[in-house]
Design brief:
The complex is a heterodimer of chains A (495) and B (303). Chain A is of the alpha+beta class and 495 residues long. Chain A contains 20 helices and nine strands. In chain A, the strands form two sheets. In chain A, strands 1, 2, 3, 4, 5, 6 and 7 form a seven-stranded mixed sheet that branches. The two termini of chain A are 47 Å apart. Chain B starts with a helix and ends with a strand. Chain B has ten helices and 15 strands. In chain B, strands 6-5-4-3-2-1-14-15 form an eight-stranded mixed sheet, covered by helices on one side. In chain B, strands 7-8-9-10-11-12-13 form a seven-stranded mixed sheet. Chain B is 34% helix and 25% strand. Chain B is an alpha/beta fold and 303 residues long. Classes of the chains: A alpha+beta (495), B alpha/beta (303). The interface between A and B is medium-sized, with 31 and 29 residues.
């Protein structure tokens, strides 16, 4: 068996093992593993193909995945957290605080008298910055319900404290480099806030830096209803725009390899700036995949690259696979963009011309991504909006330019308030159009909320798998044709 | 410009247009749209506009914006921390307008200054006016810090002081001296504003004793009354209503546990024949005042 296949089956088994163990289906692993081994042995016997024996062997990685998940749980679950009691403890603010209208949420890495990450909700003021060392007195609670607990645990948070007594005892802890990068981010969001109306400033902060704290509930609902939330989630999409722009600039100046090295450096710096949250690290990995994927011809390379990225992230934190909706959405969407979109091109001979305002390109990309995530969106949020296709086609082409204006705006405000104000005037034009489109389509939303359960979802993905297989077959046939009949290709020269 | 150089530029543009027909149409459309908007904004600012008075729906708290006919702005209070006053301002004012000439804090209670923290962070403020009192709360310190960072000049006013603009004037009627009242509410800046011929009374959170003290030296018919203390029963006395006979009144109130607005106050306003508007029912209110007439709108605000 070639190495790429070995990797594919091993990685897939490992991930499935982690998934089953995460949702506490230990027995499911044994059932699945025996089923795989059993069917492989039969296929080996019937088809006389030893490859199936390898697959049976590699399915042992299911157990490895489950074991890793169990080990990780045991290793990270903090011991000796005095839940339900009023205790005093000390720790360091470990992330950029999330500021809300009248409160702020801090993730505090507690060192004594117990070791755990704790979510602290406290008054909006005084603002407590990243790296501050604080002493607290409060009552530790376990997060409820279970969904919320899983959501927090994937970020390593096992306890919540609401409105404790807080005193800041020192400010100079935390990574200096991270403090510098966070201050760059805050400089940019402050600049947006000074020169743009609230909603525009919030939207610009979202698409350029993934800042979501300032969105009003109404606007969040509008983005959800119009299927445009992904724009402000700092997905691989946003970062790949950034990288594309940088590449376009650098390829003209340097050799290709140097330009790519710079692009990777910029991704790393950007990730650090936005707080290196798991979601942004993932987005950066995704953007890198898109970056390299564009220059990879072979499908199995892309497949393994995607799998490799998932493997890296699941190794770092196995909880993301089952409990991080962002992780799931972004992988499914990228899968759609990389494979399903190509399949549509191949299966129905859809032209690759982008069309006016890139409508065809954006429509196909959105449709492919949305088709992959639709069942998940329905399961998670209760609906999936049909008009999100139209909303995205209308808005996507404007985003890169708006992002560029946003970064220029932040840069200009370092020089002069009035330069930033002038640029804001142009930027607002686009932002108003984009937020207008979001509001418009949120009213036009055609929500679909059929939830057919597991069987329906399985059938749905089976149909997509069928389409992929059909397209692959057609692609192979086309390839074979072009190899086997050179005379047709070279036809006109015989005249 | 050198003629040859100019022709070169024109020919480059023609060549670009010939190669990229679709893109050229887009760029041309964008330029035209941009021009029309720019000219539109300039024309809009030149046109004489009616004076406007807004009562911002900030939930349980106070925030009023005065826009003089020439566009000069005065904001009285900013609502509570979660009142979203800056968002409402963003949808009231044109998008490029990032300054407020006068910000007045009637008194340092968080349902009056909380929203000013974000406003100070986001808008250029010409002068910050208050009664000179301060609060020890962390949110007030945050406001003071934002004002210091932006180097906003500060002014402390008391009864008899006036803010003049054009033919209009804001006259402070209370407190006589800062810190004379028993509670913070009674030290609040209370005053009347003449705006394009209409008279508006800003009562802040002052109670009946302040109203009667004001009536000792002042008595005018009022067109718009900002009802004191979110409609509390301790203010808006029958004597005050008899002396001022307000045509309209606005109660700035949201969800609260104090029983605001009080049924007694509503009954007194009703008996005085005053037309009452409420921000909890009508949302953000706009009064457009020009040529001796006044029109009231409930304006939609994007949240």
């Amino acid at each position: 068996m070639p190495p790429y296949k070995t990797f594919f089956y091993a990685a897939l088994s490992f991930l499935l093992g982690v998934l089953f163990a995460s949702v506490k289906l230990g027995w499911g692993i044994l059932v699945l593993q025996s089923a795989v081994v059993f069917s492989c042995v039969i296929l080996w016997y019937v088809r006389k193909d030893r490859e199936f024996a390898y697959i049976a062997l590699l399915s042992l990685f299911l157990l490895a995945g489950a074991a890793y998940c169990g080990w990780y749980d045991a290793e990270t679950e903090p011991a000796g957290v005095p839940f339900g009691e009023q205790v005093s403890f000390a720790g360091t603010v470990a992330d950029d605080p999330i500021e809300k209208d009248s409160s702020q949420d801090l993730v505090v890495a507690v060192a004594e008298p117990f070791a755990a990450r704790v979510l602290v909700r406290t008054a909006r003021y005084p603002e407590i910055p990243y790296g501050a060392r604080i002493a607290l007195v409060g009552t530790l609670e376990k997060p409820v319900p279970e969904g919320y607990r899983n959501y927090l645990e994937k970020d390593g948070i096992y306890a919540i404290v609401r409105y404790p007594q807080i005193s800041v005892v020192g400010k100079e802890i935390g990574l200096p480099s991270e403090r510098v990068l966070l201050s760059v981010k805050h400089f940019a969001t402050d600049a947006f806030a000074r020169v743009l109306p609230g909603e525009s400033a919030a939207f610009l902060g979202g698409i350029t830096l993934g800042e979501r704290a300032e969105f009003s509930d109404g606007f969040k609902a509008a983005m959800s209803a119009s299927g445009t939330t992904h724009l402000v989630a700092l997905s691989g999409y946003n970062i790949s725009i950034l990288v594309d722009a940088v590449l376009a600039l650098l390829v003209g100046l340097f050799r290709r390899n140097v330009a790519y090295a710079f692009a990777v450096l910029i991704i790393v710096g950007f990730v650090a700036m936005t707080g290196a949250e798991a979601s942004v690290v993932r987005a950066a990995l995704m953007a890198s995949i898109v970056l390299f994927g564009k220059h990879m011809g072979r499908t199995h390379d892309k497949r393994n690259l995607l799998l490799f990225a998932a493997l890296v992230m699941v190794f770092a934190n196995p909880k993301v696979l089952a409990f991080d909706i962002g992780f799931e959405l972004s992988f499914l969407a990228l899968f759609g963009i990389v494979f399903l979109k190509e399949a549509v091109h191949d299966a129905w001979n859809v032209t690759r011309a982008k069309g006016f305002f890139s409508w065809r390109e954006n429509l196909l990309t959105t449709a492919a991504a949305q088709a992959m995530v639709a069942p998940l969106l329905i399961a998670q949020f209760g609906f999936f909006s049909l008009t999100s296709l139209a909303a995205n086609v209308a808005i996507l082409e404007l985003i890169p330019l708006t992002m560029a204006l946003g970064f220029a705006l932040a840069g200009a405000s370092a020089l002069s308030y009035y330069a930033a104000l002038a640029l804001a005037w142009v930027t607002h034009f686009f932002l108003a159009a984009e937020t207008g489109i979001i509001w418009f389509f949120s009213h036009l939303s055609v929500p679909i909320s059929v939830n057919g359960g597991f069987a329906f979802t399985a059938l749905y993905y089976a149909v997509i798998a069928g389409l992929l297989a059909y397209a692959a077959k057609k692609r192979r046939a086309a390839l074979a044709m072009s190899f086997s009949s050179p005379s047709i290709v070279a036809g006109p020269h015989y005249e | 410009m050198n003629k040859g150089r100019f022709e070169d530029i024109v020919s480059v543009i023609y060549a670009f247009a010939a190669r990229n027909a679709g893109r050229t149409v887009l760029i041309a459309a964008a330029v035209v749209l941009f021009d029309v908007t720019a000219v539109g904004c300039v024309v809009r600012d030149l046109r004489p506009a009616p004076a406007r008075l807004y009562f911002l729906d900030v939930g349980q708290g106070d925030s009023e914006l005065v826009v003089f006919p020439d566009g000069v702005k005065m904001l009285v209070d900013g609502g509570p921390l979660n009142g979203g006053a800056y968002k409402t301002l963003g949808s009231i004012l044109p998008p490029e307008d990032r300054s407020i000439d006068v910000v007045m804090m009637s008194h340092p209670e968080v349902d009056h200054y909380g929203g000013l923290v974000e406003i100070a962070r986001r808008y250029r403020i010409g002068v910050f006016v208050s009664n000179g009192e301060e609060s020890a709360s962390e949110s007030f310190k945050a406001l003071a810090r934002e004002l210091d960072v932006a180097r906003v000049p500060k002014a402390v006013l008391r009864a008899g002081d006036r803010i003049l603009h054009g033919g209009d004037a804001f006259t402070v009627l209370s407190p006589a001296r800062p810190g004379t009242g028993g509670t913070t509410n009674d030290d609040a800046l209370v005053g009347d504003l003449t705006l394009s011929g209409a008279r508006i009374f800003f009562a802040a959170d002052a109670d009946g004793s302040v109203e009667s003290a004001v009536l000792g030296t002042w008595s005018e018919p009022v067109d718009v009354l900002k009802v004191t203390h979110h409609g509390s029963k301790y203010g808006t006395t029958a004597a005050f209503l008899a002396a001022t006979s307000p045509k309209t009144a606005v109660i700035e109130v949201g969800k609260n546990s104090y029983g605001h607005p009080a049924p007694e106050t509503l009954a007194r306003l009703d008996a005085a024949g005053t037309k009452v508007f409420r921000t909890d029912q009508d949302g953000t209110l706009e009064f457009a005042i020009a040529n001796g007439s006044m029109r009231v709108f409930s304006i939609p605000v994007i949240e």
